[in-house]
Amino acid sequence: METQKSTLFTRDFTLVVIGQIISLFGNAILHFALPLYLLRETGSITLFGAVNACSFVPMILMGPIGGTAADRVNKRNIMVALDFLTAGLTVCCCLLWGRAPLVPLVIITLMLLYAIAGAYQPAVQASLPLLLTPERLTQGNAVINMVNTLANLLGPALGGVIFGLWGLGPILVTGGVCFFASAVMELFIRIPHQKRPRSAGVLATVGSDLGESWRYISRERPVFLWVTLVLSAFNLILSAVMIVGLPALVVQVLGMSDTRMGLTQAATGLGGLLGGLLAGLLGARLKPRHGSVCMLACSALAAGMGLAVLPGVPAPVSYWAVTAAALLAMATATLFTVVLLTLVQAQVPGQLLGKVIACIQAVASCASPLGQAAYGVLFDSLPPSAVLLGAALLSALVALGSRGVFRQLERS
Question: Which of 144, 221, 371, 394 has the most neighbouring CB atoms within 10 Å?
Fold first, then answer.
C-alpha cells in the first residue's frame, strides 16, 4: 500500500480527480450562467451583487457542517450523495423555469448550489492525506486546484457560447448530466475510513465537533486564527470586488458580449491553472512568508484594472487589460492557496482536519457576501475606476500589515 501511495496518480486519487473535473465543470457553467442571465434580464448591478452575496451565505454555513461530516462519515459517500443531490436540483430548476418568478428562483438555485459545494469540498480536501504520502501532498493539492481552475476555464468559455446561442436551458441540462456522471464515477473510489462513535444526537455531535475544532484553532494554534482574520479582511476588500467587478466591468461598463464575458471568466480559470502548475513545480520552496507578497501582488493588479477603465481609455484596450489582470491575480491567489492548504493538512491531526479546514474557510469567507453586496451598490453609484483603486489601496494595507502573521506561521 505504501508503494502505491508514494505514486501521485494512484487509482483512487485519479478517480477523485476525474470526478472533480466533471462535477466542477457542471458547477462552473451554472455559477457563470445563472447570475449573468439575471444581470442581462434586470440590468441592475446592485441586484447582481446582492444575489451573489445571498448565494454565498449557505456555502459559508454548510462548510463547517460538511467538515464535521467529512471527519465522521465515509468521504466517498459524501461526494456521491451530494453530486446526486445536485443533479436532482438541476432537474427541479428546469421544471420550474418559466413557471416561477425569475429572481427568487435564481437566488434559491444559487443558494442551494453553493450550500452543496460548501459541504462537498471539505470531504475532498480531507481525503487527500489518506490517499497520498506527505511528500506528495503539495502536488496533490496543486492538481485539485488545477482541476478547479480548469473547470473555471472551460465552464465559462463553453457556457458563454452556449448561453449566447441557445440560452439557459441547455446549460441546465449539461450541468445535471455532469453531476450525475460524477456521482456514478465516485461510487468506485476507495477512501480509508474509520468510523468514530458518537454518544449524542446529530446536532449535538456537530456542535461538539465544531467547538473542538474552534478550540484547537484559537488555543492550540492561534496563528491559524490570525491568518483566518487576515484572509477575511482580504476577502471583504479584494475578492468581493473581483467577483462583482468583473461582470460589471465587462458587461455593463464596457458593453461586451456574453462570449467576451465567458472569455474573461475563462482567463481567470487559466490563471488558476497557471498558479497550480507553479505551485506543483516550486513545491517546498514556497513558504508561508510569501503570503503577504502574493496578496500585495493581487492588490497591484486590482489597481491596474482600475487604471484600465479610466475615462478616455478605448473599450477594447480596457477589456484586454482587465482580462490580463484577472488572469494574473488568479494565478497569484492560487499559488498561495495551495501552499497554505498543504501547511494546514500537514499540521492538523487527522480527526480534526475536515472541521479545521472548513472552519478556516467559513470564517475567511464570511466577509465576502458583505463585500459583494456593498460593491454592487458602489459600482452603481461611483466611477468603476474609483471603486477598484480604493479597493486596491485598502487591500495593499492589509497585505503589508499581515507580514508578521505569515512569518509567525512559518516559524510555528
Answer: 371
pLDDT on residue 389: 92
Cβ neighbours of residue 374 under 8 Å, at least 6 residues apart? 49, 240
In a domain? residue 4:
no
- pLDDT value at residue 197: 59
- Report CA dihedral (336, 337, 340, 341) to the nearest 10 degrees: -160
286 is a domain residue: yes
Could you tell me the CATH number of the domain that includes residue 257? Answer: 1.20.1250.20
* Domain contains 1: no
Q: What is the tens place of the pLDDT at every residue in 94-106?
A: 888 878 887 788 8
Q: Averaged over 327-332, what is the pLDDT?
A: 87
Q: How high is the pLDDT of residue 204? A: 65
The count of structural domains within the chain is 1
